[in-house]
Design brief:
Layout (H helix, E strand, L loop, with lengths): L14 H5 L1 H20 L26 E2 L14 H5 L5 E7 L6 E9 L8 H5 L5 E2 L16 E2 L1 H6 L6
Antiparallel strand pairs: 1-4, 2-3, 3-5
Cofactor: [4Fe-4S] cluster
Subunit structure: NDH-1 is composed of 14 different subunits. Subunits NuoA, H, J, K, L, M, N constitute the membrane sector of the complex.
Subcellular location: Cell membrane
Length: about 160
């Protein structure tokens, strides 16, 4: 039995549609109309003078930069269980631990978070059994010139307070 093949011929597009020139001109006309409208009436342009003015649309549940909590005695609540690093999908948390003398528990020597790798998902906060890490610092931007300035170490994380902006 022979296979029947149906041949479908394409309709040829006109030259202007193939070049997309009408659509380019329409887009440029719209862009230029916005440009001249804003150029002639620049007082109606809304802008925010950051960091002096904070955005008003940030909710209290916004995940800002990380912070480590301390207990009543002033020691870190973190027991270096590595649960936050395990739950982190971007593998940006690095913990080095040591045993506390005369105790079975551990404490972190190094606790680094690479903020350039972090996706701010909050899974580290949910995974922590001791509620030692939070993302409620209120800091929602980090500025730096080098890659090393975006690595939050244990000292920075421990000294950051809630609403510290």
């Amino acid at each position: 039995m022979a296979i029947k093949i149906k041949k479908i011929e394409r309709k040829k597009m006109p030259l202007l549609q193939r070049l997309y020139l009408p659509y380019i001109f329409i887009g440029m006309a719209r862009t230029l109309s916005h440009f001249f409208k804003n150029l002639l009436n620049s007082k109606n342009i809304e802008f925010l003078e950051y960091p002096e003015q904070r955005p008003s649309d940030i909710t209290p549940r916004y995940r800002g930069l990380h912070r480590l909590l301390k207990d009543e005695k002033g020691a870190l609540k973190c027991v270096a269980c590595d649960m936050c690093a395990t739950a982190c999908p971007s593998n940006c948390i690095f913990i080095e631990a040591r045993e506390i003398p005369n105790s079975k528990e551990k404490e972190p020597i190094k606790f680094n978070i690479d903020l350039l790798e972090c996706v701010y998902c909050g899974l580290c906060v949910e995974a922590c059994p001791k509620d030692a890490i939070r993302m409620d610092s209120g800091i929602f931007t980090k500025v730096g010139n080098t890659k090393s300035s975006f690595i939050a170490d244990i000292v920075t994380l421990a000294n950051t307070k809630q609403g510290d902006f």
